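Hi R.,

Here's the chain you asked about this morning:
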Amino acid sequence: MKINNKKEKSLALDTLIGANTVFEGSIQSERSVCVEGSIRGRIEAKGEVVVGRQGKVEADIYADSVVVGGQIIGNINARSRLEITATGRVTGDIEATKITVAE
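And here is the predicted structure, written out as tokens:
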């Protein structure tokens, strides 16, 4: 899977919540999580959490890094970095070592 930003990079996915999927509950992953659908609950990942353009998340997120292309309502704790793309929206508290926000 490719994520488009200023540099195109590959993302090794462990868990994918697809575009037509609605998930309620907690996700714990040793690797990365990609949300293209909807999730309500809590996400914990030792890798990266990516919320795609169509992704809608009502959850607190704890991860190494987080990329937001869709909508998040909840708190984000990114151990290394948080990137909010031009289409990304966050409502909640943010804690991260590095934060990048696109115009």
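One quick note: Residues 8-101 form one domain.

Cheers,
M.
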